[in-house]
């Protein structure tokens, strides 16, 4: 019975931890989401100004309301779609493939919305023969918006530098569990909502995002090698390259992948 109660308590603790993490994640992503929507609204204002899709003969205010509203709706859909693509991590090394998937998902419903919406808003006839023209126009706009969004929000290579001798210890080291205090940090690996800490004294999990950890690792020379890995430079024991990819071996024996997104920065920094 005691074991059952223990498992229940552990499960409840896990739920509380995950709930706290989800709330924090929502707070972090909310400003980014609305920045994307604001960017879409600006694009809608531009479409209204030029009278896109033959709406230049319509009074400016209705035209503005229609295009800004439509663009904001598309921006919300695009942001949510891009977030799910990023979470899956399937396109870290092929961003063009991720962008193509986003465009493929958004263009068909976007075409129907603009086709029917413009007809209802501006009193145009609903004609099936107009759909191909709307499809091409929506496709061009969706591709342009996706590329601009990628250029603005693409991940930057995360490299951290060694701190001066008299600098304070990196903030992240204060997060090490008691059994790892004083250990040499080799790497940080993201696992779901947690981070696995690789050290010379073993491994441990903590609740934190990798991007936040990297910000607190300033002062330890290292680099992000993959969307799920940050590695300390001194922890590197060996590098193997093959088939256009590189794999790092840590002093602990752990194997760390290097994605193409970070390989160039690592080569330029002399890692391999």
Order of helices and strands: HHHHEEEEHEEEEEH
Which regions have little confidence, pLDDT < 50, spanning 5+ residues? 2-29
Number of E-type strands: 9
The mean pLDDT is 77
Major sheet summary line: 6 strands, antiparallel
Helical content stands at: 40-55%
The geometry reads as: elongated
Report the radius of gyration as a whole number of Å. 24 Å
Main sheet: strand order: 1-5-6-2-3-4
How many structural units, i.e. domains?
2
Separation of the first and last Cα atoms: 55 Å
Number of helices: 6
Description:
Helix 2 (60-88) packs antiparallel against helix 3. By secondary structure, this protein is of the alpha+beta class. The longest helix is centred in the N-terminal third of the chain and has 49 residues, at 2-50. The strands form two sheets. A six-stranded antiparallel β-sheet has the order 1-5-6-2-3-4. It contains six helices and nine strands. It has two domains: 2-153, no CATH class; 159-268, OB fold (Dihydrolipoamide Acetyltransferase, E2P) (Beta Barrel).
Overview in brief:
The chain is an alpha+beta fold. It has helices at 2-50, 60-88, 95-122, 131-153, 210-216, 260-268, and strands spanning 159-160, 185-191, 194-199, 202-207, 222-226, 229-232, 236-242, 245-250, 255-258. The chain has two domains: 2-153, no CATH class; 159-268, Beta Barrel (OB fold (Dihydrolipoamide Acetyltransferase, E2P)).
Write the layout of secondary structure elements.
Elements: H1 2-50, H2 60-88, H3 95-122, H4 131-153, E1 159-160, E2 185-191, E3 194-199, E4 202-207, H5 210-216, E5 222-226, E6 229-232, E7 236-242, E8 245-250, E9 255-258, H6 260-268
Antiparallel strand pairs: 1-5, 2-3, 2-6, 3-4, 5-6, 7-8, 8-9
Helix pairs in contact: 1-2, 2-3, 3-4
């Amino acid at each position: 019975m005691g074991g059952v109660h223990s498992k229940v308590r552990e499960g409840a603790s896990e739920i509380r931890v995950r709930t706290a993490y989800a709330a924090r994640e929502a707070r972090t992503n909310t400003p980014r989401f609305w920045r994307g929507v604001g960017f879409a609204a600006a694009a809608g204002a531009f479409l209204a100004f030029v009278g896109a899709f033959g709406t230049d003969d319509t009074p400016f205010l209705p035209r503005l309301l229609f295009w800004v509203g439509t663009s904001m709706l598309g921006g919300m859909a695009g942001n949510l779609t891009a977030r799910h693509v990023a979470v899956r991590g399937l396109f870290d090394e092929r961003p063009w493939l991720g962008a193509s998937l986003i465009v493929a998902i958004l263009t068909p419903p976007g075409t129907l919305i603009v086709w029917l919406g413009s007809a209802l808003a501006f009193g145009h006839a609903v004609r099936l023969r107009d759909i191909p023209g709307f499809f091409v126009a929506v496709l061009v706009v969706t591709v342009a918006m996706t590329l601009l969004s990628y250029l603005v929000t693409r991940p930057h290579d995360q490299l951290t530098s060694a701190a001066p001798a008299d600098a304070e210890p990196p903030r992240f080291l204060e997060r090490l569990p008691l059994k790892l205090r004083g250990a040499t940090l080799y790497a940080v690996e993201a696992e779901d909502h947690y981070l696995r800490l690789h050290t010379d004294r073993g491994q441990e999990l903590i609740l934190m995002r990798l991007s936040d950890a990297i910000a607190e690792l300033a002062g330890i020379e290292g680099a992000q090698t993959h969307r799920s890995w940050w590695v300390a430079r001194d922890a590197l024991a060996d590098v193997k390259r093959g088939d256009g990819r590189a794999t790092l071996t840590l002093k602990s024996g752990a194997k760390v992948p290097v994605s193409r997104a970070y390989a160039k920065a690592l080569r330029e920094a002399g890692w391999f």
